Protein: TetR family transcriptional regulator
Organism: Kibdelosporangium aridum
Amino acid sequence: MRADACRNLDTLLQTGAKVLARDPSASITQIAAQAGLDRRTVYRRFATREALLVALFEAKLDEAERVLDEARLTEAPIAVALHRYVEGIVPVSRQWPLDFSSLVSPDHATEERRQQLRARLSAFVDRGVDEGFFRADVPRTWVRKLLDDLVKLAAHSNPEMEPPKAADLVVEILLRGAGKQ
């Protein structure tokens, strides 16, 4: 791909994620206009709105997988891995604010990747409970939901907060509610 085409694609995806996060029903024409691109340029790359959505989710999944790998959820100490994960995923959530639930007709491969990411995080929470880091009397699904909700809150309700500070707060709040007492 030519350099200008790569820039256009990156601009389109970045803009598309933000526009669709604000208005899940936004059209390709609206996204193209916000990105400063001609809609024909967008349609040459993505024949349908669904194809654009799949590309957006693939980009978000790529970044989330990178964060999970770097956090070393299976081998690093729980506290270290948790902090690394939150510090890495907050910027990803800000960069790709689109919610997976807005994908009306999910692409099977994309959905499979999403489920694999969710399973990795659930396994991490299980590990935390098994190792006594999280309370055993709190349902594991609650701990996972609380982690997801705190990350979302840190990423979007206070966008000027630096990721390390956001991670500190998320971990502290999570541990006060679900941490081993």
Q: What stands out?
A: The first helix runs from residue 3 to 22. The CA atoms of residues 54 and 126 lie 30 Å apart. Residues 1-47 form a domain with the Arc Repressor Mutant, subunit A fold (CATH 1.10.10).
